[in-house]
Design a protein that fits this description.
CATH class of the largest domain in chain A: Mainly Alpha
Shape of chain A: elongated
CATH topology of the largest domain in chain A: Tetracycline Repressor, domain 2
Distance between the termini of chain A: 59 Å
Largest sheet of chain A: none
Oligomer: homodimer
Number of domains of chain A: 2
Order of helices and strands of chain A: HHHHHHHHH
Largest interface: A-B, 27 and 27 residues
Number of helices of chain A: 9
Chain lengths: 207, 207
DNA sequence: AACTACGTAGACCACCGTGGTCAACAATAT
DNA sequence: ATATTGTTGACCACGGTGGTCTACGTAGTT
């Protein structure tokens, strides 16, 4: 309600946000513990309820915080004008990991939100989630040039396979750099390695 | 300890096992609730601790139960003599879903085990897990015939891509048939759909 | 120095769900 | 009729819960 929390020093505010994001991502809303949050954040118990009215308010604050970041820093980087599926995916993947590297907890938290009880989320949050899903869908299915595919290949099926393969690649990367290791990831190297795989895909599927 | 539980009627025993597997899979060991387990299983609280000494014993029983099933019903179906990656994967995938359909909770439970705290699992369980991982690895990397790949394609990279694509397919299927819906899955249909994708892969990557 | 206003910590609260027990009783076997 | 086994759920001490409140530190103003 008050803007006390917003006026906090940047470092401290960020510490609290990260601690809370981590706790909610790990345990979900119900089983998340405010005691653990304040311990992780290194603040007194009272302060959390001084900044936020209650656990729910904190949760909603985080939800909005994550969506704002997403809308300001990540989504604008996605370019649906690129007609080539593989190129589009290359750029989107690098953007994604770049965002992930900078805000490791945000993605984890949003991931759990997507699976959360519907009745926990207000309608406007649901709409934001739907928008997010739509972007993910458009990224892979909208406004693409199919003409590059080989004639003897079903381009619809090929696209699905490509999508899965690239998401498989992303998962493998995430498995290696999970959690705190995320900051160690080398985006240039990722981009290169990824490019190698994309070249193989092009050779296999394109004319 | 005693064999009281084993002498139970098959239906009742299975009800308890399923309730417990589900609870542990959903909440992990620490946050799993014995109260919820007995409620789901439809038995009195006392019985659970009459059959098992404590929560841990129940957990270990389930672990062994799952591994036994896996070793008797699933692993023998995997055939590493098939030299063609795609064919091998086709058979393994059908086996996997067939097992999954019959024992939906077992896979979920084993999945959480793999991520569980190491100190929760005894050494022999760790060994069984390692064995399982090795089988998964061998399935994709051992004793395969690379000679079918096109000459202008890096067969190592191609194999990785194929693996990811097929696992992506599996994940999509699982997303559709999660939980109780698993029993609705049509294995023949799955096998056909999957075959279509495999054909596309063959056209793209093989000579 | 005195006063005010905000920031901060953590002891404390009533409450609830926990793993586990146990006395009472039902069912079955001898 | 008796002994054995199967079964239930009220009950227990306990630990962790979200949230409160008092006491204190700090900084600015007069």
């Amino acid at each position: 309600m008050t803007n006390t929390f917003e006026n906090l020093g940047k470092e401290k505010r960020q510490r609290i946000i990260n601690a809370a994001l981590e706790e909610f991502a790990q345990h979900g809303f119900e089983e998340a513990s405010t005691n653990r949050i304040v311990k992780k954040a290194g603040i007194g118990k009272g302060m959390l309820f001084y900044y936020f009215n209650n656990k729910q308010d904190l949760y909603y604050y985080l939800v909005n915080y994550c969506f704002d970041l997403l809308h300001n820093k990540y989504l604008p980087q996605i370019n649906l004008n690129e007609p080539d599926l593989i190129e589009r995916y290359r750029k989107a993947t690098v953007s994604k990991f770049s965002f992930y590297k900078e805000h490791p907890n945000v993605f984890n938290f949003l991931g759990t939100i997507m699976l959360a009880d519907g009745d926990l989320l207000t309608e406007d949050v649901q709409e934001k989630l739907d928008h997010l899903r739509k972007v993910g869908y458009d990224l892979v299915y909208n406004n693409l040039d199919y003409s590059r595919f080989r004639a003897d290949i079903d381009s619809e099926k090929a696209m699905e396979l490509i999508k899965w393969a690239l998401e498989g690649y992303q998962q493998q990367v995430l498995a290696n750099f999970k959690g705190e290791k995320m900051m160690d990831i080398d985006l240039d190297q990722l981009s290169n390695d990824f490019g190698d795989y994309l070249d193989v895909l092009k050779t296999a599927f394109y004319k």
